[in-house]
Each structure stands twice: as structure tokens, then as C-alpha cells.
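ok so i was messing around last nite and threw this chain in just to see what happens. nothing serious, just curious
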Amino acid sequence: MELTGTDATLMNSHQITWIRHTFAKVADAPDVAALAFYRNLFTLDPSLRPLFGTDILVQSKRLMEGLGIIVNGLDQPERLTPMLEELGARHVGYGVCDAHYATAGRALLLMFSQTLGSGFSEEAMSAWESAWEWTARTMMRGARSASAEKSPAIRQTKLVTVR
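result:
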């Protein structure tokens, strides 16, 4: 099944296979992979460090669990979409903005490259780029919806002419 939808990057079964294959390799050493991701993230943008108040080992476990859910659900995007939108909505409260998703995507690709070396082919990288773009867009959509719900409605007032 292809990853489709109004906002989705198309992914074919071959791309999904690459993603699952490479994720399975890094999942064998989840702490190493996750810590590499966070090292990359904070190197790319040190201003992001304060957004992570949780112990980085706890956060690393959450990252790998979340990536696992995404990887396992790529062939059922209709099931992933609501979860990712909710995750994006929660991230607004943590101070995450749209630009942070691009930085996280770069950190993720670097992590795969660093941990897999030559096992992270151009095909695998392209598949991960597509998956991350779709994931980030879906989360940002959820963030925008949450922000819109929280912002006060602008009240229109009529000007009254006093005679």
C-alpha cells in the first residue's frame, strides 16, 4: 500500500522496506542510536536543549518507541495521522516550532548515517527523507490546529456613531 493522502509524500513498498530494514538495525542498539540523534540535534541547534527537561535517557527511549510506531505504521497512514497530529499539538506546549522539524530531520538522517555507515544507502536515505517530510508535515498540521484552538477569537465590533 502506498502512503497517500492530501498532504502525504508518496511512499511505495520498496521505500517502506528500506525504512524498516534500517530501523531494525539501529533498534538493536536503541540507546546508541537515540543518543547519537540528540547529540546531532543539540549540535545543529544548541538552543533546542532547554526544550528537553526530561532525562535524556528517558527521552531517548520515547524517541525510539515513537519511531518504531511510525515505522510499523507506514503502510497504514490513516491510523498514524491522528496520532502524529496529536503529537504535534503536544509539542506546541514544549515550545517546538516549524523550523525545529527540519533540524530534527537532519539529526535523524545523520544518526542513521553515523550508526549504519555504508549500510545507510542513498535509497535508504531517500526513503527516510520522504517518511520524515510526511511525519513532520502531519505533526505541524496538528500543531497549527492546536494553536488555532488556543488563540482567542478576534471579536468584530461595530462602530457606533453617536449623534
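not much to say yet. The two ends are 69 Å apart (CA to CA).
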